[in-house]
Amino acid sequence: MYESASRSDNADLDPLVQQVTDVLRTGRAGIVTDIDGTISPIVARPDEGFVLPEARRALTSLRDLVAVVAVVTGRSVVDARAMVGVEGLTYVGNHGLEVWTEHGPELVAEARPWVPRVAAVLDEVARRLELGTLSDADVADVPSHPDEPPTLSGVIIENKGVTASLHYRLAPDRERARRELLEILARYAVTSGLRVEEGRMVMNLLPPLSVTKGSAITWLVREHRLNSIVYLGDDNTDAHAFRALVMLRQSEGVQALGIGVVGPETPPSVRQLVDASVPTVDAVAELLCGVVDRLRSSATMESRAPTVGST
Question: Each residue of 9-18: pLDDT tens digit?
Answer without folding.
Answer: 455 899 999 9
